[in-house]
Design brief:
Oligomer: homodimer
Number of strands of chain A: 14
Shape of chain A: globular
Helix content of chain A: 25-40%
Distance between the termini of chain A: 34 Å
Largest sheet of chain A: 10 strands, mixed
Number of domains of chain A: 1
Largest interface: A-B, 34 and 34 residues
CATH superfamily of chain A: Ribokinase
Number of helices of chain A: 11
Structural class of chain A: alpha/beta
Order of helices and strands of chain A: EEEHEHEEEEHEHEHHEHHEEEHHH
Chain lengths: 298, 298
């Protein structure tokens, strides 16, 4: 089954302790799509400006990604500039230029509407609601961020009430629920709507809550992280891609989806932007999945 | 096989968001012993003052713990006072009264000398070296802290060169090696001596390095942490207790030992001091081990 993703495609300028990458390919929907396309067909709904390099579009087009829904608008592409600390878990946003993304009004293509699986990337919850009203998906997952939690909470609660799965990191859980404890926070989120909560803890792995069931997975231990930008979006892409490929939201499938998400995300961290991710194949993901099994089984 | 532990037995006054516990039973060697005694015979080497409540000694004596090496010295028992933040992962030490612990000179009993497994609790590395010279253990694990890493590094390096296993948390890895990455840090520590490094990450689990092998385990997810004091020492007790019980340091045993350590430590967090831990039985640990298997297998 195919998966539809709505979100940003961007040009990222990133400084990390390993170096600087200027105006590289970025954006949540881009990372999601490159990851998910290892598992299934992806419909990408997004917007780029007329300055967007053709090579980036060609890269995406070379994968199992339907770009009919990638709008090319007049104006500048979304640009983000960030700098990571020596502690690579910390970063500062230095600049955000929304460009054509500021007035982005997602319009689902016929294929995007009919996809059984939908991922609502991190955009204004009012837009997420609008996309939901266009889509026929059976299973909807959502990403959000502190900005929407704090500034547009009413809209966010409306969309949370309608979705199946929230993919969220630990800090956002605290912001959304006031709970400093992931287990209590996730239970509160389940009461808001989504029966499934995937609580991402970065280098510490992920805890999955599905109804009353719980699954705790470590992250893939890495000796070197070059650039973690997009790791969370890659996780979501691997997670949703595997679910769509298996066409199942059974707990056993969801657990494996968490591991596939973690494994795929580990590639993203190994180089700037999608430099490493774009070399990844379904086979290499399976090899690393097996390595993950080996290092976590007892 | 039995295990010997050398370390503190104390009276802890602890304030957490759940309440206050005044002069409760505490100390690393105490938590270690209560945990390990669920698996094997423990020889406890420590010191208490003449003000130490008899009920605490009676509690330890009621378990499979040899107290012949628990010295009763003239003077005050070691007292520690700490306060946890709303974020229970953070705490401040408000007061430390070393009392009789200040001049503690560990003397191993015959049984303690002959134990095949030895845990050097968090004391001055010169004392740890002295204990090592008294002992006939085949397998030695060690705990330390930032104080010794920063103030007595030369002695610490001497003892590290002689031991088999370092149990250490992520912050201490950074202090000891200058590496902000656990994988790189653990490899550096292995170069200092111990072939095995158990890197504790608190609520995020543990990564075990054994030679070139690696095992990553999540923590047991908890909805409520009343008091995490002693959780790390309890982990060490469950870890070493299981290894001594199995009389094996094979990788497969070490991995299960990490899980038994985590599971036993989860009990400690559920109430103040050892209040919950002291109710635990080998059977309840096995039940929770099985629950851990269920929530982490995929």
């Amino acid at each position: 089954m195919s998966v539809t993703v709505v979100g940003s495609v961007a040009l990222d300028t990133v400084e990390t302790p390993s170096g600087t990458n200027t105006e590289g390919l970025g954006g949540a929907a881009m990372f999601f799509s490159l990851a998910a396309a290892n598992f299934t067909r992806v419909n990408l709904i997004g917007v780029v400006g007329d300055d967007f390099p053709k090579e980036h579009v060609d890269l995406l087009a070379s994968r199992d990604i339907d770009l009919e829904g990638l709008e090319h608008a007049e104006g500048k592409s979304f640009r983000w500039t960030g700098k990571y600390h020596d502690d690579i878990n910390l970063r500062d946003t230095l600049d955000t230029q929304l460009g054509v993304f500021e007035t982005f009004q997602p319009k689902l293509t016929a294929a995007a509407k009919d996809a059984k699986y939908l991922f609502l990337g991190n955009i204004h919850p009012a837009l997420q609601l609008d996309v939901l009203s266009q889509a026929n998906a059976d299973f909807v997952a959502l990403d959000t961020m502190n900005l929407w939690i704090n500034e547009t909470r009413e809209d966010l609660e409306k969309v949370l009430a309608k979705i199946d799965c929230l993919i969220i990191n630990d800090e956002e859980i605290f912001d959304l629920t006031g709970e400093k404890n992931i287990v209590r926070g996730a239970r509160k989120i389940q009461d808001m709507g989504p029966s499934i909560v995937a609580a991402k803890k970065g280098e510490h792995g992920c805890v999955l809550f599905a109804g009353n069931q719980l699954f705790s997975a470590p992250a893939f231990p890495m000796a070197e992280v070059v650039d973690p930008t997009g790791a969370g979006d890659t996780f979501a892409g691997g997670f949703m891609g595997y679910i769509a490929q298996q066409d199942s939201v059974e707990f056993e499938t969801l657990k494996k989806a968490v591991i596939y998400g973690s494994v795929t995300a580990s590639y993203t961290c190994e180089d700037f932007g999608p430099e490493r991710l774009k070399e990844v194949t379904p086979d290499s993901i399976i090899t690393r999945f097996d390595a993950f099994v080996a290092l976590s089984k007892f």
